[in-house]
Amino acid sequence: NINAKPRCMSIKVSRSCCVFEEVKDESAPVSFVFSTMYFTKLALILLVLHLASHAIASDATGCRFAPKFTAEQLLSSADARQQFLELVFQQEGRFAKVGLAASTATTYDGTELDWDSGKPTQPLHTFSAPSKESLHIMVLTHVLKGGSTSKLASLFVEPDSPDTAFETAIDQLERKIAAYQSFNQRFPGYGGYLPWYTNVDAQGLIVPGPGNWNRMVPALDNGENIWAIYALKNALQDVSQTAPQEYRARLQNLYTQWQAQWDLMAQTAVTLFYYDVGNICAVTIIPNISATPSENSYSCDGNGYLDDPYEGELFTWFVYFFGNFSQVSGNIEHVKKQIWINKRAQLVPLEYRINGAKVTIQRGWCFSSHEQWKYLEMPYLKSNINRMLFMNGEKARTWNSYKKKIPGLYAAVNDVVPPKKLQSGYLGCLGIPELAQNPITRFDVVTPYGAYPVILANHTIGMIWYHRMLLGTAMQGPLGSTESTNVNGTELSPLVTWDSKVTNVVAFLGGVADMVGDYMQREGILQEFVEIIDREWGKRFPTVHS
User: Fold this and answer.
1) For residues 89 and 499, is the Cβ–Cβ distance under 8 A?
2) Alpha carbons 266 and 469: distance in angstroms, whole number
């Protein structure tokens, strides 16, 4: 029952997790010895309970803060929302202390959790991907950029000393770009892109792998990282001129290095990923990772092309605007337009009923929240037709759970297991069958990060759905929100990862889409971006019912 009394990380409540706990002392005698010590302890307990009852969120250090807020408070009180968010960012930031390699500041995928305490345990997921890097980079960009979101972002980066977050952000970005540069030098065949990689923290390195990623590189994950880097490098350029004097030289140097990383990827994008006429490889095979791009002969892994209108589209935009097409035969404008023509078949309109009203929805792959990642990073909402479809989709997402009495939202996520079992399996297709291209067979698992696109659509409503899932059994621990839970609260995924946690963090910050839009305007490409969206979506969605 999602409304069951909240616990920490297992049926047996752990004392190391939260401050306010249900404790049953089975060794206590039937008759109490009424001593001074007993009454002193009783008075102290009553005082703690009294203080707890008079504060919405007074326990800034306890992991289990969600039950101190109600949906009504979050809906009606701006102060309650701010208090809740500050606690969210502080607690999720404790994950980042575990989820980064110390020597390189590159992301680990995540870590397993101890069932009793909720603390990190082995195995640590030392592997990661550029998609996870993008989340970290976006948060750091908000810290450096300043403004209304900087305070929350600083709580994530330094939960116990947010005033030092600016310095920490600079330090982490210096170590991260050094790791990228080292990878580029040792493995030039990747052309500046990252595969799924493994952190070798003791040596201060990242290396290709696991699996076949020692000879392959994905477009989708790199597209997510590319636009985070775009926001970062432009923010660094601006902040290096306005920051306190003692930071300006380091910020300027960081801008130069991250710009060089961007330039390298732009130079090699077409060489690595462009195939035939208007096709982009979803995954590229690299014959020799130790050879330069000019010495390699790249090919697509099978017939998989990146033609989706979901998160994979981020890479498409990068190739379109910044790829070097000089080596491609034919008229360049025709070649670039063909990219969008090849994608049209994936834009499929569906009709859906919300409270009896007909609503137009863009069909999803599985209609998992994960598919909406592009809205974190690029200014799609500047297109009226895309804004309407996005809002319709998020209304459908919440309506589906409401009508079917599902206590949460769906997104591709690690599977749940019974208590005391080890994590096993990934559910890559969790979503809404009526709105999905692919068959969906599991409907029993929800995840807090299913709320992140709802947060982008409506900050308050998204927060309430997120809060609802945190109320589930064991869905908060010392490292913040837990990966996933089944709908009756009897099983969970004893794991925490960047995808399932920090997508919400970034969404609460508003993503970087507005920043990216401003920088695209500065480069003179924003208008073309909106015009292409309006043209392509307009062809497939001549009428949008909202």
Assistant:
1) no
2) 40
52, pLDDT greater than 60: no
230-267 burial, b at 16+ Cβ within 10 Å, e below that, comes to bbbbbbbbbbbeebeeebeebbbebbebbbbbbebbbe
**Tokens 């919440």 belong to which residue?**
398
Q: Give the start-end residues of each E strand in 219-312.
A: 274-275, 279-280, 283-285, 299-300
Reading the block at residue 500, the tokens are: 């399932």
357-362 vs 349-354, strand pairing mode: antiparallel
User: Could you tell me the pTM of the whole model?
Assistant: 0.90
Under a CB-based contact definition with an 8 Å cutoff, are residues 194 and 217 in contact?
A: yes
Burial status of residue 25 (CB atoms within 10 A of its CB: 0-12, 13-18, 19 or more): exposed
Single-letter residue type at 22:
E
pLDDT for 417: 96
The separation between CA 365 and the C-alpha centre of its own chain, rounded to angstroms, equals 18
Sign of CA dihedral 327, 333, 338, 339: positive
Q: Count of CB atoms within 10 A of residue 38's CB?
A: 11
Cβ-count burial 181-207 (b if 16+ within 10 Å, e if not): eebbeebbbbbbbbbbbbbebeeebbb
Is 5's pLDDT higher than 80?
A: no
The tokens describing 111, both together, are 């870590």
Dihedral of the alpha carbons of 29, 30, 33, 38, in degrees to the nearest 10: 70
Distance (Å, whole) CA 179 – CA 174: 9
d(CA 522, CA 312): 24
Mean pLDDT score across all residues of the chain:
90
Tokens of 75: 């809906």
- Per-residue pLDDT tens digits for 328-372: 988 999 999 999 999 999 999 999 999 999 999 999 999 999 999
Is there a contact between 491 and 502 (Cβ–Cβ < 8 Å)? no
